[in-house]
Write a structure and sequence with these properties.
single chain, four-stranded mixed beta sheet, six-stranded antiparallel beta sheet, elongated
Length: 445
């Protein structure tokens, strides 16, 4: 257990140790190969050690460093298997576990936020061992004064300074930082996190977000959100939610469990804006679990996108035009929404050809989201030699859609990790505002 390193110099030095560690192990590996050790064995050993260092450093720093690690964990499914495999277990651990802070620090925060007699006035029992430790806070199990099991979420002292320091440093070394997990671009992740970090640190705001979800999904047969009992600037006490973490289903679930979890997860992301007026914008698996009665339990509401009128109806209309093969109307709609700038020339048919594979899951009654499918998509749009790359370079992402885009991209990454077969067509088109069933052709068998 340890407190967050508070010094910007200390945190920067630890972050810098990651690419330096990679370089050192590479040099050591070359020496072993000269000494006769097989190249494949050397590469596997280097990647395993790098992955172990990745968890140790990002987990200890928490803050923005760990936030980036969690974001990377969502998209490992898009990487080639030979690159992703050594890092998968390490990045998964960052989704819902990290080295915790000492009990003395926990008690100090609770005394400051809930009063000096917090243990006897607020709780019947309080477990000093954290149930989960993540990027800016950790969760302890306790029994509230009325006998209810509760989760006590406590923000790390110095989490704000840590976030600011880490994200500033990571933005500067983003190009080097790709050495941590080859093939992933850290820069856009750090930019998005920097833009939203103020909201993440405000536990009063997070509690209000959580209560909005509670109202939106009260008595829902498929989704459960734990209610908030009390909150302050750095502490949230809410009902305890038991269940199987989504990360465990990703690692060990049966196909039936994967199918059920994927369908619940997809439905929640689609219907939440209409039900709660908010899009849950932190899609990594550590925030979700499957309860004993088969519902999707949802946690962590610090990062959201407020959509008081639900998802924009323009998305449903554009998807309908694309599914119908109406390239001209789709291209005109994309221009009107700002996805294609007025100064940019682009052939509607080329644009439809670029976008069609992305909506292919909506053409079938059921679709299996898989790592191989996502890797194929990533290769298709990132290959400089392919025409799709040139089309993609002409597209623009309007400010109102930035967070929606990131959540959907991350959600697809999670679905591909889960590997479930789901009725995506009915779930998405049946709940997406603006979807026009009169335009949408029949499902492909």
């Amino acid at each position: 257990m340890s407190d967050l390193p508070r010094s910007a110099v200390a945190r920067t030095a630890k972050l810098a140790s990651l690419p330096l560690g990679v370089a050192g192990r590479t040099a050591l590996g070359i020496g072993k190969r000269i000494g006769g050790k097989p190249a494949e064995a050397v590469a596997a050993e280097l990647q395993a050690r790098t992955a172990a260092q990745l968890f140790a450093v990002l987990g200890e720093l928490k803050g923005g460093a760990m936030k980036v690690g969690q974001a990377l964990s969502i998209m490992e499914a898009a990487l080639p298997e030979e690159l992703a495999a050594p890092y998968r277990a390490t990045l998964t651990k960052l989704q819902d576990a990290a080295p915790p802070m000492p009990s003395e620090t926990v008690h100090r925060v609770l005394a400051d936020q809930l009063g000096p007699r917090w243990r006897t006035s607020k709780f019947i029992e309080f477990d000093d061992t954290p149930a989960a430790a993540a990027s800016i806070g950790q969760v302890h199990r306790a029994v509230w004064r009325d006998g209810r099991p509760v989760a006590v979420k406590i923000q790390y002292p110095g989490a704000g300074e840590a976030l600011m320091s880490d994200l500033a440093q990571l933005a500067r070394v983003a190009r080097v930082a790709t050495a941590w997990v080859p093939g992933l671009d850290v820069k856009p992740i750090t930019e998005e996190l920097r833009a939203r970090m103020g909201e993440e640190l405000d536990y009063d705001l997070e509690a209000r977000n959580q209560r909005a979800f509670v109202r939106g999904f009260r008595d829902d047969p498929e989704v459960v959100v734990p209610d908030v009992l009390v909150h302050s600037e750095h502490v949230i006490v809410s009902e305890w939610l038991d269940g199987t973490p989504l990360s465990r289903i990703i690692a060990h679930g049966t196909q039936e469990e994967r199918d059920r979890a994927a369908a619940l997860y997809l439905r929640f992301q689609v219907v939440a804006p209409a039900r709660a007026g908010i899009l849950h914008a932190d899609p990594h698996p550590g925030n979700f679990r499957i309860t004993a009665d088969g519902r999707l339990g949802v946690l962590d509401f610090g990062l959201v996108n407020r959509l008081p009128h639900g998802m924009p109806a323009s998305i449903g209309r554009l998807v309908s035009y694309a599914l119908a093969g109406d390239a001209a109307t789709m291209a005109r709609g994309l221009r009107e929404e700002g996805f294609v700038k007025s100064t940019m020339s682009i052939d509607p048919e080329d644009l439809l050809g670029y976008l069609s594979p992305f909506i292919d899951p909506l053409r079938h009654e059921e679709f299996t989201f898989s790592r191989s499918w996502l890797r194929g998509m990533a290769t298709r749009v990132q290959d400089l030699r392919r025409p799709e790359f040139r089309v993609g370079m002409k597209l623009n992402l309007p400010p109102d859609y930035v967070l929606i885009h990131r959540v959907w991209l991350g959600g697809i990454g999670v679905l591909c990790q889960v590997g479930g077969t789901v009725p995506a067509r009915d779930i998405v088109l049946g709940n997406l505002p603006g979807a026009d069933w009169d335009l949408i052709p029949a499902a492909v068998s």
